[in-house]
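Escalation from tier 1.

The customer reports that the assembly of three entities below gives different structure tokens on two consecutive runs. Tier 1 could not reproduce it. I'm attaching the input and our single run for tier 2 to review.
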Amino acid sequence: MKGKLLVMLALVIGLAGLLGYAGDKGTVYYLAPNQFDEMQTTAAAWIQKLVEEVGYKCVVMVAGSEDVSLQINQMEDAITQHPAAIILAAANADAIVSSVEEARAAGIPVIVYDRVISGTYVDFTSVAGCKKMGIAAGHKIASLLKEKYGEVRGNILDIMGDPGDMYTVLIEEGFQEVMANYPEVKINTKIAYGWEATTGANLADDWLTVHPDTDLIFAHADHLAAAIASVLELKGYEKGEILLVSTAGMPMGLDLIREGWCQATVQQPVIAQARGVAMFLDKIVQHQCPKPGTYDVGGLEATLVYQDYGPELQIPGDVITIDNVDDPRWWGNQVGK
Amino acid sequence: MTENSGKSVAVLREGKLSIKGNRKAVLRWILDHMVWFILFFVLVVLSCSIRGFAQWGIFRNILYHAVFVGVLAIGEAICIISKEMDLSVESVAGLAAIMTAWLTGTGLDASGILLNGYLALLVVLAMGAIIGAFNAILVVNYKISSFIVTLAGYLMFRALALVVTNGHGVTRLRPEVVMVARTKLFSIPLMVVLLLFIYIAFYIFVTQTRFGQHIYLVGDSREASYNAGIRIGRVLFGVFMLSGMLAGLTGWLLAARTNGAAPNIGMGMLFEAMAAVVIGGVSLQGGVGNLAGVLAGAILLSTIATAVSLLGMPPFYMNVIRGGFIIIAVLLDALVQRIRPYLM
Amino acid sequence: MVERKDVTVLEPPVLRIEHIWKSFGKVQALKDVSFEVYKGDVLALLGDNGAGKSTLIKIISGNYRADKGKIYLNNQPVSFGSPAEARHAGIETVYQQSPVCLNASVTANFFIGRELCNGLPGIKFLKKRAMRQETEKAMADIGVHIPSVKEKVGLLSGGERQALILGRFFHWGGKIALLDEPFAALGVGEARKSLKLIQHMGQQMRLPIILITHNVEYAFEIATRFVVLRHGEMVGEGKIADVKVDDVVAMITGAIHVRDTN
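Tier 1 run:
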């Protein structure tokens, strides 16, 4: 019995040894909210890669599946290790505030990745601007409807992700802001709790059965769109008969565009955001303030501005359509290559 | 040894072998508190193998992170000791957390009532007690298996809270709630002190009071308890209500900890609480279990989580290791049960 | 009622069974059974399978109701609707598998449902030491040596468990114990201990016991009186001292009918 215990602990020790190598400049922790979709796994992999390229050791802590409490625990654990910096994609922006303050009080710079924390000052924020992505999606959807009817009108089925995730909430905000200009458009919003692809597919299936006059489906992530596309196929729709717009720019989203099921996806510049963090990491660790202005981040034009909560690097989210789907700059084209 | 006549056993006991008797008593005590020794062993191994692990800050975190599962596990433990099951605790905790946030929060989707945090605690405790009584009515009066009753509760109660908040979380609670999570007494988090206090209180409750004793007896043999005139229904009402109240308290603490409540708050805690209970040596057969072991189980789980985080291992390793520990705990327990009769 | 010239006591019988009849459909399980149990009696209820022993026991302990006949406990007519009522009145059956709390201590089982407490309002704290001492004393009184009253009952032998149940029953004012095949699950050594215990309780402590057993040898060692049932009828009754084992075996198998011959 004890023997087996020892074997298992030896395994743990071995892994510890494996990760024991530290970069010259110290350790940086990346706290990820989950590892369940390609966006999150890509983000974690690229942050680790790019941070290690600039000379730090990078440890990724994952908060299960958006477990707020676990992420606070991990924040506290990270603080005890006095790392060079903590990169944080918050499971919940309000909940993590006191831990962020605790880290900064201990002299550890906190860098926010992707999910804005507005409740306290942080040392750096690198975002796509989910709201801007929502706005971009809104404009694209308006133009698609205009193409169809000559004017912006029609019925939209809007499928959000988990309402606990600010990503979908902000996209919804931006999207609704644009659509408010078009009173002729009817929007029905549904929620795919837990970002469940099956839930999304079922929602679309039921909705289309009752409302065959639907013009467009806006899914808040590509994996939802993929599930919905298979519903459309099963129901015998032609490609493009019901328009499909999505966000994220996952490899599967790009494939949907190539196949013709999906008309557009608003890509989140996942890798560029990670690149932005790595670009400014040395400065931030040394507690210097980055200068506002425009920067070239992996071929995308990013803007650094000062918000109430600190310096923020905003990276545009591009609309990907069949015309530009093979652009090598898209993160969906860089994954696995 | 069972074939010894009563007399010779008595002689053995009173005579020359008293030292050996003491040694046996020590050995017995060690076996009964095996999980603490496992925990100690794991902490030592991790301290030696992970750089930066052996420090007060980490041990403090481990204790702090054990608070929520720890409190929830007490209720689960007394349910299982009474040979019932409460699968609803996680959802009741989630409901309580969201209710707390809804009542005391200033964020979007809050009620706007801005209730005092301690009044909100009373509200969620009462709510936990009512849910517990509801479970108990179905189990005791309608004779439905508690597994089924509380499975339904598991599905229902969290969702009920989301009905109130339109499926959204609520954040930014009143300061007196949040302070509970941020206050330290001599560098020990208040919640850790609270955890230890609750454990001591419940330890005394189950070992030193008549009601506590009846929980064990009812779990051990319904028939013997019934024959002896113990009102089993009343005991089960107490057990379920306590479990519900502890779940309510857990929810309130979680809300304080996360300064709000996300819709998925505390998701998965049922299985952690179960794991703590089982690792702690509580038997699903009923009538057996020691709350001290359950506390050790909860701390062991949070130790593993902390180690996995520090190593940057993907979180699913955490449950691989935890699952391993459950198996080890159960096997060890079986072994102990086999050795135990020789240590009488 | 059966005449008893051999006993000249003023005490009424603890248990008196009068003209009990019971049938299940067409099967007549008991026909006009009558006997008495006095203080100090260990009454062996003997008979083959299907002789009606267990039916009679179940009537006495409240599982069944008799079709005809009466039961008197300490001269009071009683009628039990359930075993719980019988138990409450002071009649308990000890089976081989009588329920005990195996994981609880001897003391906890001894005091189950009757724990000694400090009467704090709302919350009752156990008086553990007092209960332990009382258990130790009670067990010693009935002549049982249990290694430690703190030990769990699950670790006791079958005989020790019976002793605990019996000791507990009489300690709390039990009036008459029905022992249903108490030796069946025990090894030889355990059975001997159990015999001693029953003898001690019945003869020295004068606690009334009805012993139901197949084992006539054992019955002869410890019983003071016997009743033999055959096909639901009482075919023999008397003092153990007055008869030989062979005669009783003959009654059980149907070779002699004591009532007819006497």
